[in-house]
Amino acid sequence: MISRSLFCRAVAICGMLAIFSVAGNSLDGFLAFRLVSPAEAKKVVIQRTTIYITTLPKGCVKTTYSGGIVVWKCGTKYYQPYKNRYVLVYIK
Questions:
Q1: Mode of pairing for the β-strands spanning 69-74 and 77-82
Q2: Fewest CB atoms within 10 A around its CB: which of 19, 77, 83, 87?
């Protein structure tokens, strides 16, 4: 069972972190806790598969992520241009 003093300390720490996160980047370098910019939040990890197609299905939408990464969203699947064809990718 958790003691009352330990519980109060944990609540106080959580409250301080919440206040600092609203205040900005005041904890940079201290706890490595900071708000991220929208550009940083849009960074993704793309995992290529071994499935290739020569043409995209109709209705695909082009999306560009940070760093100039281009993928095409076709329904629930994503494709990335690769050597004059498209490779099925998973986005994490």
A1: antiparallel
A2: 83
User: Would you state the structure tokens that stand for residue 78, as one six-digit string?
Assistant: 């994503």
Which of 60, 91, 56 is CA-nearest to residue 75? 60
* Residue 31 token pair: 């706890």
- Sheet with 46-53, side-by-side order of all strands: 46-53, 85-91, 77-82, 69-74, 61-65
* pLDDT tens by residue, 35-62: 656 655 556 788 999 999 999 999 999 9
Nearest to 91 by CA among 82, 81, 77: 77
Tell me the pLDDT tens digit for each residue of 8-18: 677 777 666 56
Q: pTM of the predicted model, to two decimals?
A: 0.54
Strands 77-82 and 61-65: unpaired
Given the structure tokens 């944990």, which residue do they identify? 10
